[in-house]
Design a protein that fits this description.
By secondary structure, this protein is α/β, with parallel strands linked by helices. It folds into 2 domains: 5-244, Spore Coat Polysaccharide Biosynthesis Protein SpsA, Chain A (Alpha-Beta Complex); 261-332, no CATH class. Helices cover 40% and strands 15% of the residues. The protein is built from 13 helices and 12 strands. The protein has helices spanning 15-29, 51-58, 75-82, 104-114, 162-168, 173-176, 185-195, 212-221, 249-267, 273-284, 287-295, 299-307, 314-325; strands at 5-11, 38-44, 64-68, 90-93, 99-100, 120-122, 125-129, 148-149, 159-161, 181-184, 225-228, 234-238. An 8-stranded mixed sheet has the order 3-2-1-4-10-6-11-9. Strands 5-12-7-8 form a 4-stranded mixed sheet. β1, α1 (15-29) and β2 (38-44) form a beta-alpha-beta unit. α7 crosses α8 (212-221) and α9 packs antiparallel against α10 (273-284). The N and C termini lie far apart (51 Å).
């Protein structure tokens, strides 16, 4: 009999983080009635560290399906590929640097069994900075005071239109983060094969190879009702994503280059047109982001989206431009 849930973990050279994640799953399974209801799919992107030793250690405790790529195929392709090896009715892509909260799996299985009509389930994410992760090596020592929720929860409502939940998010991490949704695996793969058929493996050059999961989700859930799992806690750590550099500058570039145009596109197809426009502008109007972004050369994009719509920022913008133009036109250099 196929499992109910496939936890799909794309991984590369993070054996310590993977060990912590798998240990959190083992701790969770103590409260799961039928352990075979959950399978763990691990896709190793040709790691050179002790990833295989960590996987071998947990094979006796977890129902693991393990594959290793013969070469490093890139981050986005590995995320895209990991669900291909799953067999569960529902799939959940979890980063190797994420952490599953206490009792989360028993709560998730209960929801999937009680409310099977949905094709998507949204999980609240709780974020903390990576330097705090040392405090969480022992699963029972997780302290919620270190974490900040990324979505406004509802005590009396669980049904939401998918994009409506974007409007309840407190920052940009809700749907850009891969563990934020559990979904019907067969429908997801079917849509993925259609919308990502021209997928290019060179990561971070298009929205498809930057946020492949988000592109599939928008085609799968836009305008449709999903279930918000309010009591489930999934933890992720800011600063462990080596692929976006040592600070948030590159991450901001990805947001403005791909996420904001993505919002512009789905806004045109949604009943929440005005609300999504406001959400998009909320991202664009962050002053600290504006400073960093101008320093990163993409002032033309910002000028189009901000200055003409918000004259309040004109003087602020021109002051920044003057300062940076005096610096030998460094802002015109490419990233």
């Amino acid at each position: 009999m196929s499992p109910i849930l496939s936890i799909c973990i794309p991984t590369y050279n993070r054996h310590n983080s993977l060990r912590i994640l798998l240990n959190s799953i083992v701790e969770n399974l103590e409260n799961v009635e039928t352990k075979r209801d959950i399978e763990i799919v691990i896709l190793n992107n040709n790691s050179t560290d002790d990833t295989e030793k960590v996987v071998d250690y947990f094979k006796n405790e977890l129902n693991i399906i393990y594959h290793k790529n013969s070469i490093n195929i890139g981050i986005a392709p590995n995320i895209k590929k990991v669900t291909d090896f799953a067999t569960g009715k529902f799939a959940w892509i979890v980063g190797d640097d994420d952490l599953i909260g206490k009792n989360a799996l028993s709560q998730i299985l209960c929801i999937l069994n009680k409310h099977p009509k949905y094709t998507g389930y949204v999980l609240p994410l709780y974020q903390a900075y990576a330097e705090h992760k040392e405090k969480f090596f022992q699963f029972n020592d997780i302290n919620d005071t270190f974490f900040r929720g990324t979505i406004s929860l509802s005590k009396d409502k669980s049904d939401f239109v998918w994009e409506e939940l974007l409007l309840r998010s407190k920052d940009y991490h809700l749907f850009t983060s891969i563990p934020s949704m559990i979904f019907n695996r067969e429908i997801y793969i079917s849509i993925q094969n259609k919308v990502l058929k021209n997928f290019k493996n060179d990561s971070f050059t298009t929205v498809e190879n930057t946020f492949p999961h988000l592109v599939v989700w928008s085609n799968m859930f836009l305008g449709k009702t999903v279930y918000l799992c309010s009591n489930v806690k999934i933890y992720f750590f800011i600063g462990e994503q080596e692929w976006i550099g040592q600070n948030n500058i590159n991450w901001l570039r990805l947001l403005y280059q791909f996420y904001v145009p993505f919002l512009e596109n789905i806004k045109l197809k949604s009943h929440y047109f005005r609300e999504l426009e406001s959400y998009k502008n909320r991202i664009l109007l962050n002053k600290s982001d504006l400073i960093v972004f101008i320093q990163q050369r993409s002032f033309i994009f910002y000028f189009r989206h901000i200055v003409f719509k918000n004259l309040f920022y004109f003087k602020f913008y021109m002051k920044l431009m003057k300062n940076h133009l005096n610096n030998k036109f460094n802002l015109f250099k490419s990233w």
